[in-house]
Amino acid sequence: MDVRILPQVTTPAAGPVRHQILILGPVFASTGFCITSGYGATAGLLRTALGRVSKTLNRITALVFGALAIRLVWE
User: Fold this and answer.
1) DSSP 3-state assignment of 62?
2) Average pLDDT of 21-33?
3) Residues 23, 16: Cα–Cα separation, whole Å
4) Alpha carbon 28 to chain centroid distance?
5) Which one-letter DSSP state was computed for residue 75?
6) What whole-number distance in Å separates Cα of residue 25 and Cα of residue 32?
7) Residue range 14-33: average pLDDT?
8) N or C terminus: fewer CB in 10 A for the chain?
9) For the residues 2-20, what does the mean pLDDT come to?
10) Which pLDDT belongs to residue 65?
11) What is the full DSSP assignment across 9-61?
């Protein structure tokens, strides 16, 4: 965490700043963990869905690269 951010998220009137920072650390880590876990779960679901159509995607990719190669040869 950048030190320049601390004055924006801590308030001396709410109590000792040290305690606020000690609470902010685990909150920041847990929210980061939840968001990263969500990305991982979504990627796993997409992998399963895309695994079924991977052969078709490979063929489309081959056609696109083939077309680009032909265009490069003709120029």
Assistant:
1) helix
2) 91
3) 11
4) 16
5) -
6) 11
7) 89
8) C
9) 76
10) 98
11) H--GGGS-HHHHHHHHHHHHHHHHHHHHHHHHHHHHHHHHHHHHTHHHHHHHH
- Residue pair 34/7 in contact (Cβ under 8 Å)? The answer is no
Question: Residue 48's pLDDT is what?
Answer: 79
d(CA 54, CA 37): 25
Q: Which amino acid is at 22?
A: L
Are 10 and 17 in contact, with CB atoms under 8 Å apart?
yes
Q: Which are the contacts of 50, defined by CB distance < 8 A and separation ≥ 6?
A: 57
Band of pLDDT at residue 53, cut at 50, 70 and 90: confident
Q: What is the pTM of this model?
A: 0.54
Specify whether the CB–CB gap between 21 and 10 falls below 8 A: yes
Could you tell me if 6 and 16 are in contact, meaning their C-beta atoms sit under 8 angstroms apart?
Answer: no
Q: Cα–Cα distance between 19 and 54 in angstroms, integer?
A: 51
